[in-house]
């Protein structure tokens, strides 16, 4: 094989965004080694610029002619581009959230950014991984970086405990997942590419081998751990409560998006013979996640634990799109993750601000906050109302699109469970808002009575303010001006070859209108709702 053919098969241009992130990571690492702790004045802004440059590179890869790279190990199709974009944006918003928090803890900001960028890199590669070895290496890159971020506050016993729990449960999950993919490797006759695995198993022509069902069970266990689906959610509340809050914000969006990208690519491509089985299993996971996540969240007294159970419930909503398996279903997943990025990170930004000023995250301590910090109260209220699905905010249209897609596909039970649990979720979101806004001055908590003067001129506070305003504006406008996001989500599915055959099969059993009609119908309820308001 000559150099020209090798370069064509490697097609390194497909991972240009990842190359930008690697270059940014190296600049921060080397700069910190040379300059020392004073590098914290410029390293966050280098990280933000590098991540935004990666987003620009992803935009130029939208219509890439040859998405297959590294001898079939990486697929840079539209599906991977959109998921990589979600992960990069979540890291971009997390960086300004972290500056004040990390510096106040007395730890190195540059090291934190390097680990965060490494986790971002793992998630990006996982979103496009099309081969077993690439999948596992990317998954471990993301996981190990997440363990390090979770235990980054070395002086905090809760952070150490969260990291240890996350490491032990995560290691067991990785071992289970690895066993599942090793069974796939054996059943396919030694193939590692997902397409070749499916082709070799289908070529046998016999009934579904029992080994394939066993492999499916282990693979689903690994994926469910990554997206925090019940009953693989046990790590989530403790890790969310003990970890540094910026880390929790990233894990709740970036890590979850990477897990869903892996689920779509691996299950659709490598398990066509057991499609009914994995749809059934994910139906059970979605129902359990929506019910348990929302019901247990009602009893929480800590904001971080409440948002942890909220993220479990949100994973259940997103799984509806994966289960129905139509183009509208996959597009609704992507649309919901795009808006979840802003409303969830906005909520965590408010939690960081409150904990920095008061040192607590107890819900009862938010009592009467609007009198001392109107911006924080307004921002947190908007993000919580959006998470609850209140119109005309973005979360309402995200749930509307998912439920509409599920109803059109005939998943009536899933949609009804989703609607009922959404109503339950509104209660615990509204409870926090009521605590902040409705309380009289004499009912103000002791923490709020001693609330420090709001000063945005302190080091690291201005980027935090920018993150909050950006998240609130995006959450508000993404609902009213949702057409571009609808179009982006639908276009990403229409341009992804691996999802077309699957969608056709599901449409034969549950007919759905053509793409233009579907998009028009999906947009119509959102536009009517806006006009009514």
From TrEMBL:
<feature type="transmembrane region" description="Helical">
    <location>
        <begin position="375"/>
        <end position="397"/>
    </location>
</feature>
<keyword id="KW-0520">NAD</keyword>
<feature type="transmembrane region" description="Helical">
    <location>
        <begin position="42"/>
        <end position="62"/>
    </location>
</feature>
<keyword id="KW-1278">Translocase</keyword>
<dbReference type="Pfam" id="PF19530">
    <property type="entry name" value="Ndh2_N"/>
</dbReference>
<feature type="transmembrane region" description="Helical">
    <location>
        <begin position="330"/>
        <end position="354"/>
    </location>
</feature>
<keyword id="KW-0618">Plastoquinone</keyword>
<keyword id="KW-0793">Thylakoid</keyword>
<feature type="transmembrane region" description="Helical">
    <location>
        <begin position="132"/>
        <end position="152"/>
    </location>
</feature>
<feature type="transmembrane region" description="Helical">
    <location>
        <begin position="306"/>
        <end position="324"/>
    </location>
</feature>
<feature type="transmembrane region" description="Helical">
    <location>
        <begin position="280"/>
        <end position="299"/>
    </location>
</feature>
<feature type="transmembrane region" description="Helical">
    <location>
        <begin position="109"/>
        <end position="126"/>
    </location>
</feature>
<dbReference type="Pfam" id="PF00361">
    <property type="entry name" value="Proton_antipo_M"/>
</dbReference>
<feature type="transmembrane region" description="Helical">
    <location>
        <begin position="409"/>
        <end position="430"/>
    </location>
</feature>
<feature type="transmembrane region" description="Helical">
    <location>
        <begin position="247"/>
        <end position="268"/>
    </location>
</feature>
<dbReference type="InterPro" id="IPR001750">
    <property type="entry name" value="ND/Mrp_TM"/>
</dbReference>
<keyword id="KW-0813">Transport</keyword>
<feature type="transmembrane region" description="Helical">
    <location>
        <begin position="164"/>
        <end position="188"/>
    </location>
</feature>
<feature type="transmembrane region" description="Helical">
    <location>
        <begin position="12"/>
        <end position="35"/>
    </location>
</feature>
<comment type="similarity">
    <text>Belongs to the complex I subunit 2 family.</text>
</comment>
<protein>
    <recommendedName>
        <fullName>NAD(P)H-quinone oxidoreductase subunit 2</fullName>
        <ecNumber>7.1.1.-</ecNumber>
    </recommendedName>
</protein>
<dbReference type="InterPro" id="IPR010096">
    <property type="entry name" value="NADH-Q_OxRdtase_suN/2"/>
</dbReference>
<comment type="subunit">
    <text>NDH-1 can be composed of about 15 different subunits; different subcomplexes with different compositions have been identified which probably have different functions.</text>
</comment>
<keyword id="KW-0521">NADP</keyword>
<comment type="function">
    <text>NDH-1 shuttles electrons from an unknown electron donor, via FMN and iron-sulfur (Fe-S) centers, to quinones in the respiratory and/or the photosynthetic chain. The immediate electron acceptor for the enzyme in this species is believed to be plastoquinone. Couples the redox reaction to proton translocation, and thus conserves the redox energy in a proton gradient. Cyanobacterial NDH-1 also plays a role in inorganic carbon-concentration.</text>
</comment>
<feature type="transmembrane region" description="Helical">
    <location>
        <begin position="208"/>
        <end position="227"/>
    </location>
</feature>
<dbReference type="InterPro" id="IPR045693">
    <property type="entry name" value="Ndh2_N"/>
</dbReference>
<feature type="domain" description="NAD(P)H-quinone oxidoreductase subunit 2 N-terminal">
    <location>
        <begin position="13"/>
        <end position="99"/>
    </location>
</feature>
<keyword id="KW-0874">Quinone</keyword>
<feature type="domain" description="NADH:quinone oxidoreductase/Mrp antiporter transmembrane">
    <location>
        <begin position="129"/>
        <end position="425"/>
    </location>
</feature>
<comment type="function">
    <text>NDH-1 shuttles electrons from NAD(P)H, via FMN and iron-sulfur (Fe-S) centers, to quinones in the respiratory chain. The immediate electron acceptor for the enzyme in this species is believed to be plastoquinone. Couples the redox reaction to proton translocation (for every two electrons transferred, four hydrogen ions are translocated across the cytoplasmic membrane), and thus conserves the redox energy in a proton gradient.</text>
</comment>
<keyword id="KW-1133">Transmembrane helix</keyword>
<feature type="transmembrane region" description="Helical">
    <location>
        <begin position="82"/>
        <end position="102"/>
    </location>
</feature>
<feature type="transmembrane region" description="Helical">
    <location>
        <begin position="464"/>
        <end position="486"/>
    </location>
</feature>
<keyword id="KW-0812">Transmembrane</keyword>
<keyword id="KW-0472">Membrane</keyword>
């Amino acid at each position: 094989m000559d150099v020209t053919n090798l370069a064509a098969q490697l097609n390194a241009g497909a991972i240009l965004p990842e190359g930008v992130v690697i270059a940014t990571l190296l600049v921060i690492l080397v700069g910190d080694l040379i300059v020392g702790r004073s590098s914290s004045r410029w390293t966050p802004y280098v990280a933000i610029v590098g991540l935004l440059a990666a987003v620009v590179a992803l935009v130029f890869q939208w219509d890439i002619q040859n998405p297959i790279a590294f001898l079939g190990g990486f697929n840079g199709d539209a599906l991977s581009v959109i998921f990589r974009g979600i992960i990069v944006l979540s890291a971009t918003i997390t960086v300004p959230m972290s500056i004040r928090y990390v510096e106040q803890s007395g730890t190195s900001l540059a090291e934190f950014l390097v680990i965060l960028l490494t986790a971002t890199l793992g998630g990006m590669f996982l979103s496009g991984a099309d081969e077993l070895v690439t999948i596992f290496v990317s998954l471990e890159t993301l996981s190990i970086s997440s363990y390090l971020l979770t235990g980054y506050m070395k002086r905090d016993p809760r952070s150490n405990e969260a990291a240890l729990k996350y490491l032990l449960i995560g290691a067991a999950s990785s071992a289970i997942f690895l066993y599942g993919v090793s069974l796939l490797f054996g059943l396919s006759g030694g193939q590692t590419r997902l397409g070749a695995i499916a082709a070799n198993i289908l070529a046998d022509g016999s009934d579904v081998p029992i080994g394939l069902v066993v492999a499916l069970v282990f693979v689903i266990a690994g994926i469910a751990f990554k997206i925090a689906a019940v009953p693989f959610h046990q790590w989530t509340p403790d890790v969310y409560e003990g970890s540094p809050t910026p880390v929790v914000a990233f894990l709740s969006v970036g890590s979850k998006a990477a897990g869903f990208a892996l689920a779509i690519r691996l299950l659709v491509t490598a398990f066509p013979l057991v499609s009914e089985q994995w749809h059934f299993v994910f139906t059970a996971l979605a129902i359990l996640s929506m019910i348990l996540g929302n019901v247990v969240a009602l009893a929480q007294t800590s904001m971080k634990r409440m948002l942890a159970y909220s993220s479990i419930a949100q994973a259940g909503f997103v799984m509806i799109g994966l289960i129905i398996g139509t183009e509208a279903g996959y597009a609704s997943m992507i649309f919901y993750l795009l808006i979840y990025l802003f409303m969830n990170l906005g909520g965590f930004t408010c939690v960081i601000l409150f904990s920095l000023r008061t040192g607590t995250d107890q819900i009862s301590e938010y009592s009467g906050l609007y009198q001392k910090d109107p911006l924080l109260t307004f921002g947190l209220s908007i993000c919580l109302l959006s998470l609850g699905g209140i119109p005309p905010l973005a979360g309402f249209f995200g749930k509307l699109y998912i439920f509409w897609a599920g109803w059109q596909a005939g998943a009536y039970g899933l949609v009804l469970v989703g609607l009922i649990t959404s109503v339950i979720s509104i209660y615990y979101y509204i409870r926090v808002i009521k605590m902040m806004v409705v309380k009289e001055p004499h009912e103000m908590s002791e923490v709020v009575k001693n609330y420090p003067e709001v000063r945005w001129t302190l080091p690291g506070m201005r980027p935090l303010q920018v993150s909050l305003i950006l998240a609130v504006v995006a959450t508000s406008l993404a609902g009213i001006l949702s057409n571009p996001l609808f179009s982006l989500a639908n276009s990403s599915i229409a341009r992804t070859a691996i999802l077309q055959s699957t969608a056709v099969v599901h449409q034969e059993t549950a007919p759905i209108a053509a793409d233009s009609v579907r998009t028009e119908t999906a947009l119509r309820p959102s536009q009517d709702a806006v006009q009514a308001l």
